[in-house]
């Protein structure tokens, strides 16, 4: 497992008073199979955080070999008490042996279990296409799709880490 930190730029509006540190940390776990496609998700995720909540979060990026290794690390990071949320990204494709459905289901179940055990948001950008071929057309399509998923998982992450706002219900 490799780790790097990509800290968003702080701004006075989102930084705690008298410090120049982000208000929280997010862990981003990425599988390295089809890294160029998964990286598009991470880049889009980080750009969206910087645009929508500049300086709000530092993001620690963790590399794992494949999607199957994500849930254990997600659970460990969620339990550590360091993070406000954990985000997972992977691209699970059909390698011709019909194993991808098993892997994808196991990963999603593991992420849900980690979330429930740690009582911490664990978000998924783990995707399994119906069909994927190593053609330029499919590469381009899924690069764009993972950029979209990066923006979507960033928006979800910002929503679940925001302070809850009570909703008044008329009696």
TrEMBL record:
GO BP term, pick one: riboflavin biosynthetic process
One Gene Ontology CC term in the entry: cytosol
Role noted for this protein: Catalyzes the formation of 6,7-dimethyl-8-ribityllumazine by condensation of 5-amino-6-(D-ribitylamino)uracil with 3,4-dihydroxy-2-butanone 4-phosphate. This is the penultimate step in the biosynthesis of riboflavin.
Catalyzed chemical reaction(s): (2S)-2-hydroxy-3-oxobutyl phosphate + 5-amino-6-(D-ribitylamino)uracil = 6,7-dimethyl-8-(1-D-ribityl)lumazine + phosphate + 2 H2O + H(+)
Protein name (database record): 6,7-dimethyl-8-ribityllumazine synthase
Family, similarity comment: Belongs to the DMRL synthase family.
InterPro entries: LS (IPR034964), LS/RS (IPR002180), LS/RS_sf (IPR036467)
Biased composition (Low complexity): 1-20
Positions of the UniProt region annotated as Disordered: 1-21
Assigned EC number: 2.5.1.78
Keywords, comma-separated and alphabetical: Riboflavin biosynthesis, Transferase
Highest taxon, organism lineage: Bacteria
PANTHER family reported in the protein's UniProt record: 6,7-DIMETHYL-8-RIBITYLLUMAZINE SYNTHASE, 6,7-DIMETHYL-8-RIBITYLLUMAZINE SYNTHASE DMRL SYNTHASE LUMAZINE SYNTHASE
Binding residues for 5-amino-6-(D-ribitylamino)uracil: 33, 67-69, 91-93, 124
GO MF annotation list: 6,7-dimethyl-8-ribityllumazine synthase activity
Biological pathway: Cofactor biosynthesis; riboflavin biosynthesis; riboflavin from 2-hydroxy-3-oxobutyl phosphate and 5-amino-6-(D-ribitylamino)uracil: step 1/2
Record: active site: 99 (proton donor)
Residues engaged in binding (2S)-2-hydroxy-3-oxobutyl phosphate: 138
Enzyme class, first EC level, given as a word: transferase
């Amino acid at each position: 497992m490799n780790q790097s930190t990509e800290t968003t730029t702080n701004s006075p509006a989102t930084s705690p008073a008298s410090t120049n540190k982000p208000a929280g940390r997010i862990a981003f776990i990425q599988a390295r199979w089809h890294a160029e496609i998964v990286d598009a998700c991470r880049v889009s995720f980080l750009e969206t955080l910087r645009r929508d909540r500049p300086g709000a979060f530092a993001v620690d990026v963790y590399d794992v070999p494949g999607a199957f290794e994500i849930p254990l690390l997600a659970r460990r990071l969620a339990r550590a008490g360091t993070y406000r949320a954990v985000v997972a990204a992977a691209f699970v494709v059909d390698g011709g042996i019909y194993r991808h459905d098993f892997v994808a289901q196991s990963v999603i179940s593991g992420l849900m279990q980690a979330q429930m055990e740690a009582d911490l948001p664990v978000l998924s950008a783990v995707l399994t296409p119906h069909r994927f071929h190593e053609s330029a057309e499919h590469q381009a399509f899924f690069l764009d799709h993972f950029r979209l998923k990066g923006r979507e998982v960033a928006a979800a992450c910002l929503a679940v880490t925001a302070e809850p706002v009570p909703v008044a219900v008329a009696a």
